[in-house]
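Handout, page 2. Input:
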Amino acid sequence: MSIQNKPLERRGFLRGVLATAVLVPVGGALASCAGGGGATESSAPGGAVSADNPFGMADKANVDAVIFKGGYGIDYVEFAGKILEKNHAGSTAKISPSTDISQELQPRFVGGNPPDLIDNSGAKSIGFSTILDQLEDLTSVTEAKNLEGTVIKDTLYAGVLAPGTFDGKLAALNYVLTVYAMWYSASLFEENGWTVPKTWDEAYDLGMKAKEKGKFLFVWGMEAATYYQEMAIASAIKEGGDEVRLALENLKADCWSNPAIQSVFTSIKKIVDAGLFKPGGAGTKFTAAQAQWSNNQDALLYPSGSWIENEMKDQTKAGFKMTGAPVPTVTASPKIPFAGLHSASGEPFIIPSKGANVAGGKELLRTMLSKEAATNFAKTKLAPTIVKGTVPADGFGSTALVSQTTLLDGAGKNIFTWNFIDLYGTNKDQLVVWNTFLDGKSDVATLTADLQKITDKVRNDDSVKKIEVK
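Output:
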């Protein structure tokens, strides 16, 4: 996923996926659905189970939640806490911030008094391998009805439970969605009568039209050169099917030589050789390069995750109408439809089995998954949660947010992601390779060989624990 392309300190979404990807127990595959394996709940007194109280939260109870205070803050959980307090008169939801989840909460796990709900995020989150057997299976939450009376699992986007599922156990529920797309200015395209390309040939043709107007098709910055790797992988997965993703995930020999990947690399090389990338990206800071796109409009297209709007909000031209589109495919009949999308969930919420109020932790999480709370998050953070149907047609005034929900709805079940780059920490080496390629100083054969060498090094290193992905 393209989170591997976003520098660690900048990518709020990375927090969740790294926590789930890096620390999967060896031999455990990332499952596609949740299963059993729940731990024993605390012995705290419970309340009566009912339609409005599916977990039997006790009356006048206290719920203790510790939330990572990063880019999303903690106010969205506080919002849900107020709803819980209203629905359960006399109860209190204590929402505490933390910038170092591991340091603060490891002692509480050891002491047997962990919080009832935790946002296990941040670079200093707790390793799942150390606490997995101490966590509740959250299948009971997704099988419950939300505050509006609909079964929660039926309200979620496809694939969002996979990142938090370990050996069949839904140990973490990732709350926020990141959508990866090819971003452009709808207003600029409207002014020039341009159409967003669906194939790489169409992208090349668009680039030639842009060149006539003194613009480039793409721009890149040195720290974000692998944003183009993300785009290439997503395109190849759509072109060649899931076998492309699995070969990369499992570090297969010659995985970068897959015909679908090669066809995408060749298409990008054609664009590079035509001078349709703005020169100098290998020596340009990524934010400066992005401003060349969003503020100066020197280039038409830019691949990124949906954080791009917020990241460039102070350097985006007025009336830009930032919009996302699916990445191009090589042919007009790929194995996964053009609308297929790279998207994944982050911000992993967990519920310790030894929490004083396990039922209360589940009830707070259920409340966060209500339409009211999820809509509040989308409105205040301009980012979608895993809950469908919470962004209005006007996207709260954000064209980028509107396009995210449009993309997700259009993709349907054709949503995919991958973890191997973050899992094995290869992005640093891949940045060098991609900067050279985008700068026109290497060819497809060299790009392929260099990427395969990085993969082979990990595969052949017996000291590195491998994760089989099925």
